[in-house]
Fold this sequence. Notes:
- This protein is of the alpha/beta class and 219 residues long.
- The chain has 6 helices and 7 strands, in the order E-H-E-E-H-E-H-E-E-H-E-H-H.
- A 7-stranded mixed beta sheet has the order 3-2-1-4-6-5-7, sandwiched between helices.
- Helix 1 (28-47) packs antiparallel against helix 6 (202-210).
Amino acid sequence: MNDLQILVLAKAPTPGRVKTRLCPPCTPAQAARIAAAALADTLDTVSATAAGTRALVLDGTHPTPAGWVTHPQRGALLGDRLAHAFTSTRRPGTPTLLVGMDTPQLRTEHLDAARELLGATGGPDAVLGPATDGGWWTLGLRDPHHATVLRTIATSTTTTGRHTLDALRRRGLRVHLMPELTDVDTAADAHTVAALCPPGSRFARTVATEMPRPAAVTR
């Protein structure tokens, strides 16, 4: 089996098109800068992880990191874009791991563990990382063809992760659950995740400077 391929599914950090649930308290420009920091930290972590191929699967326009390739996202619905990300980059005998840009607290240890599991003889057919909001933050597949099941699952719901796990198991796949992480969707999420990021991370620094603090209550 060839070495792992890692995909980062991302949206270009364009004001008004990204992290809109941070507005308010953020302005669209502030939300875009926070998104850009999350993406930069994620790309750095994936770049520091051993992988055969690293690909940015992108909605919009953004520079391709050195040593990476970029593929455009395809499909109108998120489930279709996720499935296409796996199937359009599929390489025979190569397991694929997909992460998003919404978990900048991601560490190389998470990705190393997934690579070892997917590459081990007798290991699981898939790894799935649940998110605290009921979704998932990573999916890895020994055979990326199985990602076609994602087209049938409603995304951005509190049951997306559970339904994804059920669908994979119905295909006869052995699934290993990864640690649960928090996606950055709301201002509260941003503060929670910033506190979990390594010191000096772009995301933690940007949240500290760009996220407006609640007004003090006076009596």
